[in-house]
Amino acid sequence: MSTQAPNEARVIPLRPQTSPPAPGGANRTPEAPAPKEPLWRDLVGDVLRRERLAQERTLKDVAETARISMPYLSELERGRKEASSEVLAAAAKALGLGLGDLLSLAQDELVRHSTRSRPTHRRTAPSAQANGLCLAA
C-alpha cells in the first residue's frame, strides 16, 4: 500500500542517490568515480581536428573541400554534433583519408583511452567447444 497522498506525484531519481554518512561520523575514504567513457563523436572530432592541424589547413579550406559548412565542421571537431556517415566520409576525403581510415584512427583513440582508464583484460579466443563446434575426427 502506498504512503503517498492521492494527488502527489512520485519522483523517480535519475541519478543514484548517495548513501548517508556512516553512523558515528566514521571517516571513510571516498571511492574515486569510474572514468567516463568518451563519446564516439568526441573521438571522431579529435581525429578530424588533429588531422586538419597536422596538414596545417584551416577550417574554411577543409569545409569547402568537403562541401559542408565551416560552423558545422567546427561543431564536429568539438564533438558537439553527431555526423552522418556521408558527412564523415566527405570530411575524411577532404583530409585525404578514407572513411575507414578516419574510423580506425578514432577506434585507436578509444582503445588508448580504455587502456588508460581501466585494468587490462586479456581477450581470449572462444574455444571451439564453447562455440558448439566439434573437432573430433
Overview of the structural elements:
This protein is mainly alpha-helical. The protein is built from 5 helices and no strands. The protein has helices spanning 40-54, 59-66, 70-77, 85-94, 99-117. It is elongated and about 65 Å long.
Q: Key terms for this structure?
A:
137 residues; mainly alpha; 44% helix
Summarize the topology.
Blueprint: H1 40-54, H2 59-66, H3 70-77, H4 85-94, H5 99-117
In short:
The protein is mainly alpha-helical. It is 44% helix and 0% strand.
Assess the beta-strand content as a share of residues: under 5%
Number of helical runs? 5
**How would you name the oligomeric state of the polypeptide chains in this document?**
single chain
Q: What form results from the Cα inertia axes? A: elongated
What gap, in angstroms, lies between the N and C termini? Answer: 64 Å
Q: How would a crystallographer describe the biggest sheet?
A: none
* Unreliable stretches covering 5 or more consecutive residues: none
Output mean pLDDT: 80
Radius of gyration: 24 Å
**Percent of residues in helices:** 40-55%
- H/E element order: HHHHH
Classify the secondary structure makeup into a structural class.
mainly alpha
Count of strand segments: 0
